[in-house]
Amino acid sequence: MFVMNDEDVLAGHQQELRRGTVVIAALATLKTPGYGYGLLAVLEKSGLSVDANTLYPLLRRLEKQGLLSSSWDTTDSRPRKMYSTSDAGRKLLQQLESEWNSLTQSLNTLRTEDPKNLLKELS
Predict the structure, then answer these.
(1) What is the distance between the alpha carbons of residues 112 and 46, in angstroms, rounded to a whole number?
(2) Which range marks the domain in which residue 77 is found?
(3) I want to staple 27 with a disulfide (CB 3.0 to 4.6 A). Which of 33, 48, 78, 93 is the partner?
(4) Domain-embedded: residue 54
(5) What does the pLDDT read at residue 63?
(6) pLDDT at residue 6 above 90?
């Protein structure tokens, strides 16, 4: 039987945790229009490191869903795709941020309260 080491277990759970946060981070950051490479750099600097092979497909998916809009910037010698959060993306971002805040509050309660006290409140 194969047993994962602690680092593999942690890495897997971290990846799951980050998956949804990258969508929120991209929609929030791209309220100010930017390029994929610039978004990678901003996310990295903020402590939310994302691989380019993960980010670019995500950007295409968000654009296909109408959550991002894009245009080509041809002012430089190499054309680059500029992304920005659409109105639908801003609306979704507000909803996701609200859900994030609710989840954070619930997790904080679970981490700090005695489960017996929470069960008593339900009775």
Answers:
(1) 27
(2) 6-122
(3) 93
(4) yes
(5) 98
(6) no
